[in-house]
Amino acid sequence: MQKKELLYEGKAKKVYRTDNPDLLWVEYKDDATAFNGAKKGTIVGKGVLNNLISAHFFQLLAEKGVPNHFVELVNEREQVVKSLDIIQVEVIVRNLAAGSMAKRLGLEEGMDLGGPVVDYCYKSDELGDPLINDDHIRALKLAAPEQVKTIREMALKVNDILTSYLADKNIILVDYKLEFGFHKGEILLGDEISPDTCRFWDSKTREKLDKDRFRRDLGNVEEAYKEIYRRLTGREVQI
Ligand code: 5GP
Q1: Has this prediction a pTM greater than 0.85?
Q2: What is the pLDDT of residues 96-114, one digit of tens each?
Q3: 95: CA distance to ligand 1 center in Å?
Q4: Cα dihedral sign for 169, 171, 172, 177?
Q5: Ligand 1: distance of its center to the CA of 90 in Å?
Q6: Is the pLDDT of residue 238 over 90?
Q7: Domains of the chain with CATH codes
C-alpha cells in the first residue's frame, strides 16, 4: 500500500489518499486543541499513543462484532482505515455525569446516571457542535431514523464491551464520543477512541487519565496518556 497526497488536515490527524480508493492513511498528530480550537498546545507523544490506543480498541471491538473502519497499523503514528462517508453527528455515550452534561444540568461530576445516556451533537465547528435530538437529525437529513437506531445500538454495544474491558484494567469509562459513516452501504464505526475522545478515571482514586488534564490545566498530561496505554497493553512506549 502506498501513501499518496494529503486530503485533509484536522485538529488531531492528517488524512492521506492511498493507491486503494477504498482506504485512507491516517497520521496522528501531537497537536492538542480544546474548546472548539480556542485552546491550543502540544502533548508530546500524543500522536503515537492515540494511534496505538485507538488501534487497540478498534481491534477489540472488531473481535466482539462491532463493524469498524480499522484495517492495520502502518507504524507507531499511522494507520490505514476504510474510507467513510461520515455521518455529521457526534454520538456521545455517558455513564457518569461530567463535562458539558454536568454543567448544563447542574449535576455533580461523577454522579452515576443509572444506565447509559446517549447524546447527539451536530458536527459543526462553526456552531460549536450543538446538542441535537433524533428529530433534528431527520429534519436536517443527517441520517434516516432507522440509521439512527442502528448507530444508537452500536454505540450501546461499544459501551457494554468497553466498560467491562476497562473495569478489569481499573479504569472507569465516564463518557466518550463516537463517529459513524458509510462504507459501501454499510454503517461502520469510524474516527478514533482515545484519551482525546473519552473520559477515563482511575477506578480507585478517580484521578483523570484523559484530555481533561489538558483542558483543565491539571498537569501530567503525557503521563496520563502513557498510563492508559500501559494499562491496556501491559507495555511501555518509547517516545
Ligand atoms: P462533553 O460533552 O463533556 O464536552 O464531552 C463528552 C465526551 O465526549 C468527552 O469524553 C469528550 O472527550 C468527548 N467529546 C465530545 N465532543 C468532542 C469533540 O468535539 N472532540 C473530541 N475529541 N472529543 C469530544
Answers
A1: yes
A2: 999 999 999 999 999 999 9
A3: 13
A4: negative
A5: 9
A6: no
A7: 3-82 (3.30.200.20), 85-220 (3.30.470.20)
